[in-house]
What does this fold into?
Amino acid sequence: AGWSPARENTVTKNATYTAKWSANANTTYNVVYHYQVGGAYSDENAVTIPFQGETDTTARVVDEGATPTTARAGYVFDDSQNNVLSGNIAGDGGLTLHVYFKQQFSVTYKPGSHGTFTETTTTGLNYGDPTPAAPANATTGQIGYHFTGWNAAEGTTAGTATADVVYEAQWAPNSYTMTFDANGGTGAMDPQQFTYDTEQKINKNTFTREGYAFDGWTDDAGNVYTDEQVVKNLVSDNNGTVALHARWVADWTGFDAKGFRVVYDGQPHFIAVDGTLSSDTVTYTAATAATAGE
It folds into this structure.
């Protein structure tokens, strides 16, 4: 800066002085950072930051604008837009650079309280990208439970990515039905509903059988249950069924053996006596007496 040649303090001859100029080191230029919101760019979501540099030198957006003052969580550089990442710093401060950042989203699937899959997260999703599929076994729960949807409030997953989302699998305990078979008796008992992982008392028996006493229940696998026994988790399948069959033993209540002797062989039998006996000793065995049904 100054004059060339150096200017004399007094006039002693004809002289021509040419002004000398040096570039300003603090010339202003602007960088506009455009942030995508809802899949679109708008001036409302743009941030303009002034910088200074030397006139007639090249200004560059450092690392595509990811400087400490402009970095924003959840965004990455969008190279599909009309970015202006460098330019000559004009002396009038008219240079404006533009850099665009697009939103990035993540989708997480959590197994919830009774899921069997491992939590998974997909990152780097653009606005409008298809929502990643849930793990292959996402709807398979622990024994006794069935899948009812994702998140109590939503129920299903969105078709496209529009925000960071955590989907947690929802589960409900399976229900099953208990049916009752009189197994030779009379009467009727309605089926009883049970819920997995919940203790519940078997309904009281209302079947009767003439000459027999009720002796509990047995299921198709041979398991035995007492009347009104508290049970849990007899069936794991949703809407499954367990059938209980009444067990009967001979009822000796009120039997009068006066005048003859009964030799009991240890097995349950029903003895019907009608009329008079021809002798004072009557022996009943499994081969000659009616055997009670199980």
About this structure: Residues 114 and 142 are 5 Å apart (CA to CA). The chain has a mean pLDDT of 85.
